[in-house]
Amino acid sequence: MEKQHIYITRKIDDAVFAPYAEQFEIHMWEREEDPVPRDILLEAVKDADGLFCMLSDKIDEELLRHAPNLKVVSNLAVGYDNIDLDEAEKHGVIATNTPDVLTETTADLGFALLMATARRIVEANQYIKTNQWQNWAPYLLAGSDIHHKTIGIVGMGRIGEAIANRAKGFDMNILYHNRSRKPDAEQALEATYVSFDQLIREADFIVSVVPFTKETNKLFNQAAFEKMKSTAIFINISRGATVDEDALVEALKMNKIKAAGLDVFEVEPITNEHPLMQLENAVCIPHIGSASEETRTKMIQLCMDNIAGVLNGTGAKTAIQ
């Protein structure tokens, strides 16, 4: 019997796929960092039964039309705004993602970004690298305290709760806003549910962990930044399009807020010419929220388990509902 065919849109170490090689015919794009060109992807999916993809791969009607045998699309991410779920359903294709396995790792990165931004770690490192450190001074690279401050978490899902748990260790006052209240989290984390407006007015640190939807598109806009404290620090580890980047640049330039730490951007990748990269009070990193060796390996394995489950008839572990 002919093996079912899986196509992978990035180059990943063959050793990761060894457990699946006997069951399936596996092909992948030859480069790790560069996305597969659209025309090559459309050709590759013609024979694919399963597709292992990244957030940068657009899974739309055109692609699904080119893939008559496709049964499952497995996204290497929690987010899935790159997948047209309605079209996938029309074509009988199951879409999956990788929740849970990256929660703690992403929360680690989010809190690390918060700390680096507050204490000006990147700026301080550059200060020495450019040989500016000549003397000690009382307020040299003085940043903001984190302990006993108020953190406002927008989006209290798994990652939001994990960030709140870290904030608790810093004796922070925890506010959160979410589509629905989380009584268990309120009790366990001593978190207080507030309106979005109250959160952005009162929090010293505002952390965005929301999914990208019509409701969250440009949620953090000019009006939102104007309501924040002038000492507020904004952190985004959700999706770039939840932020009006022009408004954020203006808020940082005009000192309407103190600083921002960003792992995601509206259009990725950005370059060193991006307006945010010109600002000393913006810390920008390249979408590495879940990028630990251990977690990325678990994510890849979950993607493959989802594909294998669908193709073998046992079902996906984490199908998108």
TrEMBL record:
Keyword annotations of the record: Oxidoreductase
Superkingdom of source: Bacteria
D-isomer specific 2-hydroxyacid dehydrogenase NAD-binding domain span: 111-289
Keyword Transferase among record annotations: no
GO MF, any single term: NAD binding
SUPFAM superfamilies: Formate/glycerate dehydrogenase catalytic domain-like (SSF52283), NAD(P)-binding Rossmann-fold domains (SSF51735)
A Pfam family that the UniProt record links to this protein: 2-Hacid_dh_C
Entry's Gene Ontology cellular component terms: cytosol
Residues annotated as domain D-isomer specific 2-hydroxyacid dehydrogenase catalytic: 8-319
Matches recorded under InterPro entries: D-isomer_2-hydroxyacid_DH, D-isomer_2_OHA_DH_cat_dom, D-isomer_DH_CS1, D-isomer_DH_NAD-bd, NAD(P)-bd_dom_sf
Family named by the database record: Belongs to the D-isomer specific 2-hydroxyacid dehydrogenase family.
Protein name stated in the entry: D-glycerate dehydrogenase
Source organism of this protein record: Oceanobacillus arenosus
Phylogenetic placement of the source organism: Bacteria, Bacillati, Bacillota, Bacilli, Bacillales
